[in-house]
Specification:
transferase, 12 helices, Beta-Lactamase
């Protein structure tokens, strides 16, 4: 081993130095000063040489430890210059540096790999220092769920949204909890859990959140497709007896024409019956057609449509009947160039449904007003809002209004709002409702 050669060379130097000291002492004792001076100079040279010999190794080791202290593992020690023992030492240092760099490279690759995985998931994750609030790591989903820009310290959230800060960061959720949080224009449900861990002397908190509403919407979309398929089948079954009754009436009419003396025809009854069956059949057929087409939608017939044009069509269709009921209606657009990529037929159906609901809510109001507004928020989302100052929706049923077949009215199928939500989900948008009983409601379509 190299260190044995180093020790051997150091040992010979010491033996040689001791021999010179003995020789110098001997010549001094014999009073041969000339020889004593010469040997003394030899002693001085050996001392200097030994000091340099020992110092070289300690200097090399000091340089290496200095590099380790500042984590400078890129430093390269010359292996082809200097004494053999130092070159051997430098070779060892370089080997250590190579090994550490390989380990760091592997750790970095694993960190990047893990980071990319966590960035791809739709679950929000953040880790931060409990004492300073500095963010150790977070992914984009965390900011997207909370509708917050990227931040380096959680105090940024405290200054912007104190209530949200207390709910997310100050409250501990040892077990996963489902909570509602208020954002800009809506309230969403999230699943939250957290834990505290220690790194050296610092304590960190890890928080994980998941948007429950978004997950439920995806599941609900699949359930809708199954539900609509069943509904279409049932509706078509109900049309069959109506069509059969229409055939019977037509047969009676034919007999009355062929044998008027034997078959006296009550024209008013026949006309009323046929008219009723016709209206009902057309309504059911239209109902079935709408749901059948919706259940089969895999690719929307999207078109670039100006919001002004969309509003113009709705105004021509709905404004006369609404004003006839002494209800004031207003259409307003913040930005004449607002455009949407939508299936016009379906979105018109949504707006008509919301307007009819607003009319129903305002029917007992003296100064009834309905407003349809379009604008863009700071995230460049286009929002269409339908306001009314009607009766509002009771809080105890507000969460159920989008459930298929749920209705608080004495008449109605309970499918209107659930259909609106389904259409918005097909457009990868959402519908939001805010309502105060006795004051009115606002439905927001967010694209």
């Amino acid at each position: 081993m190299n260190y044995k050669g180093y020790i051997l060379r150091l040992f010979f130097r010491i033996i040689f130095l001791v021999g010179l000291i003995i020789g110098c002492t001997y010549f001094i004792y014999k009073d041969r000063n000339t020889y004593a001076v010469i040997i003394g100079l030899g002693i001085l040279y050996v001392l200097i040489n030994t000091y340099s010999f020992v110092k070289r190794r300690f200097v090399a080791m000091d340089d290496f430890f200095e590099a380790v202290k500042y984590r400078d593992f890129s430093r390269w020690f010359p292996e082809d210059r200097g004494p053999k023992d130092i070159r051997f030492l430098y070779t060892g240092f370089n080997e250590i540096n190579r090994t550490i760099k390989e380990i760091n490279s592997q750790n970095q690759a694993q960190y990047v790999y893990l980071q990319k995985i966590l960035e791809m998931v739709d679950i929000g994750i953040i880790a931060y220092n409990l004492e300073t609030g500095d963010v150790l790591w977070t992914n984009d989903s965390f900011g997207d769920i909370l509708d917050m820009p990227s931040f380096k310290n959680i105090r940024f959230v405290e200054s912007r949204k104190p209530e949200l800060f207390n709910t997310i960061f100050e409250t501990y959720h040892r077990e996963p909890n489902s909570i509602s949080i208020a954002l800009q224009n809506e309230s969403i449900k999230i699943l939250i859990s957290d834990t505290v861990f220690q790194v050296d002397d610092d304590a960190f908190k890890l928080i994980v959140i998941q948007d429950i509403d978004n997950t439920l919407n995806k599941n609900e979309s699949e359930s809708w497709k199954k539900l609509l398929s069943v509904m279409t089948h049932e509706i078509m079954n109900s049309i069959t007896p109506i069509s059969s009754l229409a055939d019977t009436l037509q047969s009676n009419l034919q007999l009355a024409i062929e044998q008027p003396q034997k078959n006296i025809l009550e024209l008013d009854d026949i006309n009323s019956g046929i008219k009723t069956i016709k209206n009902r059949s057309e309504g059911l057929l239209q109902f079935a057609k709408t749901y059948r087409s919706l259940s089969k939608v895999t690719k929307l017939n999207l078109q670039r449509v100006k919001v002004a044009e969309l509003f113009s069509n709705i105004r021509l269709l709905m404004e006369p009947s609404i004003k006839a009921k002494n209800i004031d209606i207003e259409f307003k657009i913040s930005g004449a160039k607002l455009e949407l990529d939508i299936d016009t037929h379906l979105i018109e159906q949504v707006l008509i449904n919301l307007l009819l609901n607003a009319v129903d809510a305002c029917k007992h109001k003296e100064d009834a007003k309905i407003k349809v507004l379009a604008s863009q928020n700071r995230n460049r989302d286009t929002i269409i809002k339908v306001y009314d100052n009607g009766s509002g929706i009771p809080q105890n049923i507000l969460e159920n209004i989008f459930v298929p077949f749920f209705t608080s009215k004495t008449t109605g199928s309970g499918i209107g709002l659930s259909l609106c939500k389904q259409i918005m989900l097909l457009h990868k948008g959402r519908i939001i409702v805010k309502s105060i009983e006795g004051e009115g409601s606002v439905f927001s379509l967010v694209f």
